[in-house]
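Render DUF4034 domain-containing protein in 3D.
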Amino acid sequence: MVYFRALATTARMVRHTSRLAAGLVPDHDVVLDAPDERLSGVLTAAAAGDHHPTAALLAATRDGAEWEYRDRCTDVLARFAQSRPGWFGRWQAEAAPGDPDLALLRAALAVRRARPRADREEWLHAAAPLVRAAAGAAPHDPVPWRIALDRARGLGLPYSEFAGIWSEAVARSPHHSGCHVAALRYLTARCRSSAPEDGGRPHGTDGTGRAGAAGAEETEPEEGDVLLGARRHDACFYFAERAAEAALPGSLLQALPARALLGHAGPAAGSPAGGAARSRLACTESEDLTDIASPGRIDAAVELAIGMSARYAPGDPWPAEVRNVLALLLILRGRWEDALDQFRLIGPHATAFPWTAVSDDPLGQFLEMRDGTRLQVAAGMPLWRRGHRAVETGQ
């Protein structure tokens, strides 16, 4: 009987898998962390040694208060500057003193350069004046404070210092996705280290830190139980749920609870994606997530993220990372058809995160998981249909 079932499953896969490719971008068209058209032209010019389009783009995002897009551009351009120091040096030589866009990129680059170094704490301490300079050069810009939050996580600063940085960030942009993600990563790292010794509790976007209705069946931590609560992960989930509750419809913040789940299912933020990381996440079953949060809280996070994803067109690059996160979370929950729907919506836009938590080859892992999801969906489909009645083999 076991052999017959295995044979029937294989037959279903063979029959249905090719059909399930409909709506999926071919493998050779999938690109990792592809920039949008606006940023793509800037990077093309930068690759030719011209920094002027970069300066113009960052100035435009500042003048137009496009803080979310400015944050994304800063991250991409800092990565580019790290690999092309000559290009960045020429810009610095020509820029006016106190240029706020150059100051921002200097700060982002300094924190980025510290990440892979064994002596990264020294580098992060040295980056402090650059981060302060970026914040001072553009007082209304939340992006320097996102960089400051990343620095706080890298240094493992106490919660009291994090709270001060966080209050500055939300004072400038209460619903800024990049700052919330950076804050969540800080809280996740602290939850993982179980270090509640310095008191306090995480703030929501209104400074209260209280959770919304999601997960209401769980006991909320008493005041002072910063990173403990009913589960030691609760502070991260309360923070994420509160931000999602306050967010506008379609905001990427509505996927923050899903990020919180995945942050605890995978390796610690900032840890190398080596063999241990791959084996841990690859072996995670849907039941294991209930050790992190209640089933109701997990389902609420997933459904909220699905609803957010549905507000964007298929292949839209803006929600691409959130959709990649959601696809992996749905796989961990065993929701194969929903995961396949997200892969269709992702289109050609694979993102390094979250797949770097699973493999050193994120693009290859994305394609492998996408193929595996198709196989799982095909394995659950009826082998034959007669009229409107599905007839399984052996009936």
